[in-house]
Amino acid sequence: MKTRKTSSSAAKSSKKVATKPRAKKENRPAGDEITQSAAFRRATADAEVYAGDPKRLRKLVEDAVGKLNTIPRGPFGETWPYLMAMIRVIRDYQRGEYRDISAPKLLIIIAAIIYFVSPFDVIPDWIPVLGHIDDAFVVSLALKSVRGDLDTFMAWETARI
Questions:
Q1: Distance separating alpha carbons of residues 119 and 125, to the nearest angstrom
Q2: Could you tell me if 135 and 116 are in contact, meaning their C-beta atoms sit under 8 angstroms apart?
Q3: What is the pTM of this model?
Q4: What are the tens digits of pLDDT across the range 11-60?
Q5: What is the 8-class DSSP label of residue 72?
Q6: Number of H helices, E strands in the chain
């Protein structure tokens, strides 16, 4: 009888150990999959290269503006105006017209726009509506860090008019 209890106890113990990794994976926030994705890491790594290359920044802005005209606004909700402001910050930075932003904040914005423009991200853009949910998530994630900077930028834009 002891053998049965021991082996059933051992089986229970091994079951507990086997289920722990699954539980952690299931409890992981959905956004982790995006921020840990190869596409997000690539965008973050590329941001510094883009920041130092005016031609790449100009092309990034062109690609972003082109994409704005072809996607639904729905997934972006209230972040849509900030997405457009992110693109304008990059444009004005590239032109040398606006430099009142720290390098780390600029890199966050550039990385978010690189991810936004890329058709090969966590949810491919060719999937209607769903293909832009991850883009919207990355924009909202970046916005948490740079909202104040974008507000300052938009005030600067308004004062220029």
A1: 5
A2: yes
A3: 0.75
A4: 444 444 443 343 344 444 445 665 677 777 888 899 999 999 999 999 99
A5: -
A6: 7, 0
